[in-house]
Amino acid sequence: MVVKDQITQQAIILFGEKGFSETSIQDIVDELGVTKGTFYYYFTSKKQLLKDIHHEYISGLLERQSRIIDNDARTQKEKIIGIIRLLITDIADKGPSARVFFREMHHLSDDHAKNIKARREDFRLNVEKVLQTGVRNREFRQGLQVDMIAFGILGVTNWSYNWFNSDGDVSPEELSKIFADMILTGIVE
Amino acid sequence: MVVKDQITQQAIILFGEKGFSETSIQDIVDELGVTKGTFYYYFTSKKQLLKDIHHEYISGLLERQSRIIDNDARTQKEKIIGIIRLLITDIADKGPSARVFFREMHHLSDDHAKNIKARREDFRLNVEKVLQTGVRNREFRQGLQVDMIAFGILGVTNWSYNWFNSDGDVSPEELSKIFADMILTGIVE
Amino acid sequence: MVVKDQITQQAIILFGEKGFSETSIQDIVDELGVTKGTFYYYFTSKKQLLKDIHHEYISGLLERQSRIIDNDARTQKEKIIGIIRLLITDIADKGPSARVFFREMHHLSDDHAKNIKARREDFRLNVEKVLQTGVRNREFRQGLQVDMIAFGILGVTNWSYNWFNSDGDVSPEELSKIFADMILTGIVE
Amino acid sequence: MVVKDQITQQAIILFGEKGFSETSIQDIVDELGVTKGTFYYYFTSKKQLLKDIHHEYISGLLERQSRIIDNDARTQKEKIIGIIRLLITDIADKGPSARVFFREMHHLSDDHAKNIKARREDFRLNVEKVLQTGVRNREFRQGLQVDMIAFGILGVTNWSYNWFNSDGDVSPEELSKIFADMILTGIVE
DNA sequence: TATGAATGAGTTTTCATTCAT
DNA sequence: CATGAATGAAAACTCATTCAT
Fold first, then answer.
1. What residues contact D82, with CB distance under 8 A and at least 6 apart?
2. Signal peptide: which range, if any (chains A, B, C, D) (predicted)?
3. What is the spatial distance, in angstroms and rounded to an integer, between the CA atom of A48 and the C1' atom of F8?
């Protein structure tokens, strides 16, 4: 069963580097010194492997998101900060996984996509709910269009898979703080 | 010469719908009732077509960005608002082009990518400069990490290619305003 | 277009010799000195080629059958003799085609099979109608179960693809006569 | 040892339904809840399994044929009737086996085919001998070309694996009678 | 007896690209 | 300008078979 995991890990790396379509099964197994047959012993298709990767990723995110949200000791503001940090550190830690997750979604077959899409929406709707609660209890500005703001927040964080390099000048923690500040209090004096 | 444009337009639509790798030259020419030979009369390769599309798109953005930035009558705040509106309306108006531009960049060959990447960075650095100027003249908060904020702003706008549907409840103009408000003044009361 | 025909002819030979599943596209094109790409330029799939072969074969049979049946100068007995000769000579002349037609039918995809099956039934029902008419006008025995007899006659003829060798002692004409005699007048003294 | 039989039975069913090439070892063992390893414990190869099936089938036929033929109380006419009934009821009773036997013979490897073919010929030659004896003792028409007639009789019966459904209007017994009548006395008034 | 992991040789199919006309 | 024919390299996937345990 360890081989299956190795294949998955290698696939994540290669999908992240070259993209899903540009990575062949041969590329993946060559790196591990096994054969294509072995791949198909563990996976029914290349798309199924992609689904597995997405599934794994979104599951992890949802679980950690719920740990943040379900903590009643936190204000809604703190929850938003937590979610921003969750996404940024995830992208920093598991760069390739994140790249696959955010960029290669459209290669999922319709069948597989349904489930994954639904859970990605869950994640977003959870953000929306936190915002909604925050508006109600006057943590956030009245009249906030929470659905669009949720998209905006996720844009800030998710986009970073495109460029963020955790070995650079700015640490994930610092970036999370910068983004949280921007979102919460804006940039004007 | 009109045929070349038709091919480009059709390619944008199909690349946008199905992705670059999933779209074959055959798919493109079938839709136009011409043959693959015709494609290769006008383009040297599939990748070159992609480059052309990217080139066209980023050129348009850069040109319009410079019209916003070079207008000395505007404050830096107004320039940021203008750039946000520029990106959002572009994504709304030319959905497929935008999808290709933001999603299929990594299919550019190294050679082609260099030029496009440089100009994408130019776009970002221009945003950074506006922010920098705004910090200096006290429109924006002191100590703002302008490079990261530029990435953040572009995240908010660019991510919308993933989800924004201009036929929905929110118009591009409204969305631009919502995002500009969030970025400039935040969401807390 | 000549190449397409060559491919079809070669396929018939090889399907006849080795069977459909045992014959690879590679086998077919190797024999002709072209490449697999060429095959897929002319055919959309291996199954489609099989369908084409079946289509061609049954069309030829049906056409010649109708020429026999529509000739009002003939008695029903003569028509039955004609159909027997039609099948036997066909199997003798186009051995491999016949083998493919009679043996490899179950490899047709459901979609393709429908049409072919319907036309094979047409052929059989035409035999049935001749028998029916012959019973009515007292050429054939009263009370004959014409549907079963039609199956019986076709069994006699079709089965010969399994063993008949037109280079042997018995010519197709002779065999047709032997079988017609057996079917029409039996074997008892 | 029961497992080996289960595998054989399941294989017959699947070979009958989908054909030999289209049925994988995996298909067979999946249905029984065992693994491919188990298959190779009992059989040395897929082809050997096919040979076993053919062997079993032809052995049964030959044995029952000899019981019919060796019974000196019967006329040759009665023997022919008996052989027709033998084949038809066999096809009716063991549909899938019969389908495999009559349709998938050409998948036997040369080595295996020799033995099976020889015994199939024995069956046919036995029919020929009955006919020959019948001609000699004037049960059958003088000058009958017994080799061809034997092929014809077997065509009538064997072909029925293609279409005969024992759940239909006509019972195996009835069909046997219809075919025997046709062969013995023909169809003309 | 039976399994589970792995293989390797093969299969069908796709498709960007070339080029003579 | 445009086509139709052909290619070749690579892709995903299949599956009978082996073998250590």
1. D68, D74
2. none
3. 29
